[in-house]
Prior knowledge:
alpha+beta; TATA-Binding Protein; seven-stranded antiparallel β-sheet
Amino acid sequence: MKQSALLEFESSAFSREAGEDALTNPGVFGKALASWLATELSRQDFFPGDVFPEDFGWCFSVGSKPYALYVACASIPDESDKWQVFVFSESWFIRRLLGKNHGSESIVSLLATVKQLLQRTDSVEALRELPI
């Protein structure tokens, strides 16, 4: 797996559904944020898939070739209005053996688009990018 930098921000715009964290880890939310980002990316000519839970947050795929790209969204534990987002790709073992590019440019490009969407959103504050 190859991962982008982490975007952190504050916003009260994304609700936390009761029981949502039963599908992730306790206290990990982000379904509303992931759904909103998927909708916004579809308006930017991206092709997001359905939102699904992982133990670390809520994710969706974004149509990309030759790599599978994903956007991950999660609340920051014990912080009611703080969120984090990152982009990652899954690389196949054979591609690594052959020394092929692991999709770094695609990850950086998608993260830049996500960051622009967040910057243009009035309800998002204190946006910052943290290296991994």
